[in-house]
């Protein structure tokens, strides 16, 4: 039963929480100067750590990794 409660809370995560994950990811790859081929595994790991869930939505990983548009 606790896993089901955890899953529900992850599904209802706020935009703010996801934005925090995205900013943390960006800082992590910038500080480590991580090559792009390491971004997906890092983003996946970060989501697992932050949510406490083994399942990671691939769309969330894509959103976290997405680069900001150039102005």
Automatic annotation (TrEMBL):
It comes from the Bacteria. This is Uncharacterized protein. The lineage of its organism: Bacteria, Pseudomonadati, Pseudomonadota, Alphaproteobacteria, Hyphomicrobiales.
């Amino acid at each position: 039963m606790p896993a089901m409660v955890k899953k529900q809370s992850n599904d209802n995560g706020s935009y703010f929480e996801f934005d925090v994950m995205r900013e943390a990811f960006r800082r992590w790859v910038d500080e480590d100067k991580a090559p792009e081929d390491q971004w997906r595994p890092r983003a996946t790991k970060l989501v697992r750590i932050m949510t406490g869930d083994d399942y990671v939505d691939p769309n969330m990983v894509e959103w976290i990794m997405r680069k900001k548009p150039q102005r």
